[in-house]
Amino acid sequence: MNENLVSKIKELKKERNAIILAHFYQPPEIQAIADEVGDSYYLSEIARDCKEEVIVFCGVKFMGESAKILSPEKTVLMPVKNAGCVMADMASEKAVIEMKEKYPEALTVCYINSTADVKAHCDVSVTSSSALKILGNVENKQILFLPDRNLGGYIAEHFPEKEFILWDGCCTIHDRIKESEVTELKEAHPNAKVLVHPECRKEIRSMGDFVGSTSGIIKYATENEAKEFIVATEEGILYELQKKNPDKKFYFPGGNGAIQCGDMKKTTLENLYNTLLNMENEVIVEENVRVNALNSLLNMHKLSE
Ligand code: 13P
Ligand code: SF4
């Protein structure tokens, strides 16, 4: 049945002149069928540069919105309309406007995990793979960073000369990883390297042999000679880790199934097929919001060069 569906999706994709993009947290069967799989930064570049008329974004809403902001002439579809991001929803447009009034001198920097409405009020967006480079390329001393207090704290540690005002948001999935869960795995696997996404709390980051984005974690595990790794991020990353490193072992704090983003897991082969068949769940971003939000994404690409 699945094979049948997979070939129907591939056929439809050609008919529609579509490209399928998937984030590393998507279910394995979705990563397997996607044309491009990557971290938030990589996928934003593909969405900007691809030649197809239709982008089917297997991810969450802020990713689909970013694709539409960068490529307004393309039709951007999402297999699931209500696949959101708890962190992105922690910063509202109104609250950002109020914060900016309080800190008029600050450069307003948003994690790409934010809504289009919020991006429209920000000077530059960052991703976990580009944030350090971008902050190193700006001269401003005062930085208003939102919505992730954990990624913000991680960046701030690298720029002691700057003053960071951190929003009090987080990814509840990464934020709930406990020190005791990592310690337990380290005791069971003393030779394992610890790989941590910067959306984790400081206590977890400080246990990391490597801290970085999903693509950074995959690169580190692939290039490092260790055979075992403790991975503090969403479990969907296991598909690519295992594909690139079939002989290595990966352990997740809290055990199998503990670090899962429910919204990322809403995509199925069935809803992906239906999206392409009916050309449904189109991402729409109001034009004046899009134009302002585009500025923050263009600055992200420019300052990461
Ligand atoms: P990266 O893949 O860019 O590291 O980000 C992870 C993420 O927050 C996706 O929701
Ligand atoms: Fe948002 Fe966290 Fe899910 Fe990423 S893993 S989409 S940050 S809720």
UniProtKB/TrEMBL annotation:
The keyword Zinc-finger does not apply. It holds the Pfam family NadA. It is an enzyme of class 2 (transferase). It catalyses: iminosuccinate + dihydroxyacetone phosphate = quinolinate + phosphate + 2 H2O + H(+). Pathway: Cofactor biosynthesis; NAD(+) biosynthesis; quinolinate from iminoaspartate: step 1/1. GO terms for cellular component: cytosol. It comes from the Bacteria. This is Quinolinate synthase.
